[in-house]
Amino acid sequence: MTTSGAATKMTITAYSDPSFTTKVSTVTNPFTVWINPASYSYKQTISYNDRQAQGSSGPSPEFNRVADEEISFDLMFDATGVIPPPGGQTSYSHGVADGISQFMALAATMNGGIHSPNYLILAWAQLQFQCVLTSMNINYTLFMPDGTPLRAKMAAVFQSYTSERQLAKEAKKASPDMTHLVTVTAGDTLPLLCYQIYGASGYYLKVARHNRLLDFRALVPGTQLVFPPLAGAR
Q: Rounded CA gap, 196 and 176, in Å?
């Protein structure tokens, strides 16, 4: 992957705060990979609530949220001398141990100031990913006569990370102070829907009046109901 014709290396930058404003102050931050990954995998999960009604023939899952994102790839460490290590390092006396230790210090070691590993940003051309390291598996494949590892492959998995402040902003999209349009499914009742949206079932009569329902007890599946902002439903 290149930018403006020039080869770029993936970097992993560590931060000590969940807002990604304070970089960890070490000479090895950011960590530059020795060899760019040959590929990487992106995974995103979408969460649904199981809304299968009693007696129905199948589930009708209701969208909950777009959940975690995950990126995984293999990092190669090679101290055979074929590939120069990044960061100006010139000695291979410890094989790949120094490079792996630098990565682990930034991404997989407890930061005493925040009582957790550091927050990370993966950067490689268009890839800009705020995350934390969730797992790694190292496979050593080549050794010096004394057993010092010369080559290793690390399978690393990173999970997206969003600060509580940003999550709070995003949560406003589902706020009871906003208008909601809901399609009725089998088994729904107006008090239940009010509870799901407003956190209290007692607004069902006012919602029924807002939607001009003649009988709020007999909701027809497929009907669309408007749930006004909480202030308007009181």
A: 9
Residue 30 CB contacts under 8 Å (≥ 6 apart), including other chains: 11, 12, 13, 14, 123
Of 1.10.3430.10, 3.10.350.10, 3.60.21.10, 3.40.50.300, the CATH number of 175-233 is 3.10.350.10
Query: What order of strands is seen across the sheet that includes strand 11-15?
Result: 31-32, 11-15, 119-124, 127-143, 149-160, 62-78, 40-49
Put simply, whether the predicted model's pTM sits higher than 0.90 gets the answer: no
2-167 belongs to CATH 2.40.240.20:
no
For 168-224, write each residue's pLDDT tens digit.
Answer: 555 555 556 677 888 888 778 888 888 778 877 888 899 999 998 888 888 888 888
Provide the 3-class DSSP secondary structure of residue 207: helix
CA 16/CA 118 separation, integer angstroms: 6
CB atoms within 10 A of CB 52: 14
